[in-house]
Amino acid sequence: MKVLITGASHGIGKSIALEFINNGHQVIGIDKDSSSITNKLYTHYKKDIFYDSLPDINDIEILINNAGVQNSLNDIDINLKGSIKVTEKYAFQNKIKSVLFIASSSAQSGAEFPEYVASKGGLVAYMKNVAQRIASFGATANSISPGGVITSLNDHILNNSILWEKVKNETLLKKWATSEEIAKWSYFITIINQSMTAQDILIDNGEGANFNFIW
User: Fold this and answer.
1) How confident is the model at residue 214 (pLDDT cuts 50, 70, 90)?
2) For the chain, does the N or the C end have fewer beta carbons within 10 angstroms?
3) Surface-to-core class of residue 103, CB atoms within 10 Å of its CB (0-12 exposed, 13-18 middle, 19+ buried)
4) pLDDT of amino acid 153
């Protein structure tokens, strides 16, 4: 498959790129930063998905919208408008098989920073719009909404033992996901899945279901 991944240089995006490469797929990454991936199956474009013009790439089969920022004052521009820009350019053509959006559990809970929450909630709504329009190509469109994920973006929590215990205790399983696990979810939904579309999958170690029962 010919796979395009935005935000492919770091964290979840890099793990997704490596998952597809390791399974023999041709991967194209777009990121405002350079990439450390060196593999004959990988091509990288150093571009900002919102502010820069996007490269002309034909016949994308799998599109994964992962690029995003948090509490940057540009969350809606990058996370939502940038993903719309990418999707409208690459997704609606005869070769497309699947589109995936990396949203956030915040899209369901409303937790975290206001613009970030709005941007991720908008992604889920836009995903459903894409699913309706892309069905004519026989393609699926879905999103996943991770809770906490172990990446360098969260080092300020991971390296603070007090904060780390607090955030783990917010989940039922007392842990966060790894970026590699999110990559495997992404692979399953876009490659193996053939029938699920217009759905958002919550992957939060039970944080949204955690509660204190008071009688």
Assistant:
1) confident
2) C
3) buried
4) 85
pLDDT digits (tens, 9 = 90+) for 108-157: 999 889 999 999 999 999 999 999 999 999 999 999 999 999 998 899 99
Instruction: Please state, in angstroms and rounded to a whole number, the distance separating the CA atoms of residues 106 and 114.
Output: 10
Taking the alpha carbons at both ends of the chain, their separation in whole angstroms is 54
- The domain limits of the chain are 2-209
> For the domain bounded by 2-209, which CATH number is listed?
3.40.50.720
Considering the entire predicted model, what is its pTM? 0.96
**Mean pLDDT over the full length of the chain:** 97
Closest of 29, 16, 21 to residue 60, by C-alpha: 29
Cα gap 211→100, rounded to integer Å: 30
Q: DSSP labels for 176-201?
A: -EEHHHHHHHHHIIIII-SS--S-EE
Please name the residues in contact with 88: beta carbons below 8 A apart, sequence gap of 6 or more.
Answer: none
Q: How many CB atoms neighbour CB 160 within 10 A?
A: 12
Q: In whole angstroms, what is the distance from residue 116 CA to residue 128 CA? A: 19
